[in-house]
Protein 1
Amino acid sequence: MPNFVKKNLDVIDEFKHKGKREQLVQLLREKGIDDENVLQAINKVPRHLFMDSAFEEFAYKDQAFPIAADQTISHPFTVAKQSSLLHIHPNDKVLEVGTGSGYQTAVLVEMGADVYTIERQKELFDFSQRIFRKIKIRPKYATYGDGYKGLPSFAPFDRIIVTAGSPTIPKTLLKQLAIGGIMVIPIGQKNQMMTTFLRVGDRDFEKMEFGDCQFVPMLERTEK
Ligand code: SAH
């Protein structure tokens, strides 16, 4: 267990954190996020519990931060942007690839989605499970595995969100999208383009692009 996990399990959500979250929500509004469901979820989820408590005072700034296993918790703006692009309705069945800290998962669960999430790093998978239990966030299903494969036994999904940069378009994931469903994914090598695919038919997808972004790479197979 990474050291900070033990510490984080003792940290609590206090009044001062709530105040900082409200300021963050205001900032996200100014940056153009207008999906109220997303903003309310960000207002509720204690982001500081998903990061090393050494960074607690920065948890509600619009910054990415290192988590375990050389990965990062995305900028709140990125989380808000990807969540908005999904156009979530209550009980939408959402596949998330790259649980990481679990922060994005928690935001989607707060938005009312039924979330199925996959993480390839065992250390992060274990960390996210502990935090979910602590703050009583319940994804429908969380697993340690290779997200390139998706979760065929649970497909089709209404929505798919990939939170790591994929060098190419993962066809296996597109196949697991319901007709009428949306996938949001950063596509590219070093820098990526935030991209959505709307499945309009069995073989037809409408692609849209939403600007440059930078994510850690989506990698194949799992790591202990
Ligand atoms: N949504 C996360 C972002 C974490 S960074 C958060 O809010 O904290 C991206 C994550 O994707 C990393 O944890 C990385 O290990 C994971 N990842 C990369 N490739 C993957 C794959 N093929 N399957 C599952 N997870 C993957």
Protein 2
Amino acid sequence: MLKKDYLKEWDKEYFWHPFTQMKVYREEENLIVERGEGVYVYDINGNRYLDGVASLWCNVHGHNHPKLNRALIEQVGKIAHFTTLGASNVPAVVFAKNLVEITPPKLTKVFYSEDGAEAMEIAIKIAYHYWHNKGEKKAKFVTLSEAYHGDTIGSVSVGGINIFHEKYKPLLFDVYKLPSPYLEAVRKAGREKALEYDTTKILIEEVEDFIFHNHQDIAAFVLEAGVQGAAGILPFPKGYLKEIRRICDEYNILMIVDEVATGFGRSGYMFACEKEGVEPDIMALGKGITGGYLPLAATIVTEEIFNAFLGEFGEAKHFYHGHTYTGNPLACSVAIANLEVFDEEQTLKKLQPKIELLEERLEEFWSLKHVGDVRQYGFMAGIQLVKDKEKNEPFPYGERTGFKVARMMMDKGVWVRPLGDVMVIMPPLVISEKELEYLLDVMFESIKALENI
Ligand code: PMP
């Protein structure tokens, strides 16, 4: 049997894929990647695909980047792993310092983990434990409808995407849930004015009223950093994040900002918080932290939070949390190189015209019969497919319309993974303007082709 054939067979026989209906997957022809180069990946048949979603939103400088490769190879020749429980390793120390230097000044201490969900899980536990150590009974979290913070039970508890989360309800802890800023803004002010500051003022009045009546037992306000990504790229209206900061300050509530998707350039800034000059008390990072190479995540906190965990050993105030691979040296050495590439290749500077180009080109999509909304936040975009534009009627869930469009795009050499019927555009930041144009051309044509189905 040819290698490509037995790999396909084994993939279906042994491998349970995440967020995948395996019955359907096993009936279909699937992409099995063998290698990557820049913004392209190559499958086991030798076909080339433009990676339109940056390998699930994490690739920054392209696949197989020489500098990131070198960092990994050099480190593996020294040591692949050593625990950080009561000990340390060189790349983890250096990268912690790097992170503190580039994140908002209030954030001074880094707690490592491996994935975005863990970074959020840790953020939640730290916030709860912080108030406990201070002798205050504040144990409730304010969360947003349509939020996504990962798939562990804690991060699902603070999440709000019904189709992913409702099945686990009996396992989750109780939270306060406020409306999704974008969806509420559209409801209140209409799509045209949804993102304006005046709309924020309306939304914030309600948020503030809620917090005024409930603040005593609230440990933290948990939210993504400016856009609800997994909900379908739903941007916050202008000033929303800043207003939440103000409210948290006023009512003595910690602000946990999830920068897992937006961090490391995706927003057009290194961190989305910078856009509105917001400094959270706790920030979660993941995805692009290693340029998309290795599982690494970090929860970064203020000095004040860190200090609340200090004490004599017998006081048992310290943070009882840690994973086997926490602060892995391979991941941290690539993460250090990732930041160096940001500098050397002027990644953020070169990104700005591409964000503008994306904005210009997205305009065209409004003309399509099956496009109901077009949303952009920095270098990420979502195009909402609808069956009937006038009635804003979705396609039936089981029809997998987004998937159909993605399959058509695959035939033209572009790989994307839609969020239901939202077509996501999230290529590596390093993509060229020409490649971006190609991605958008292919997406446009493929959505248009729905008109003939
Ligand atoms: N938070 C946000 C905002 C995310 O978008 C994601 C992943 N899409 C996560 C957390 C979870 O990260 P991970 O998949 O690495 O656990």
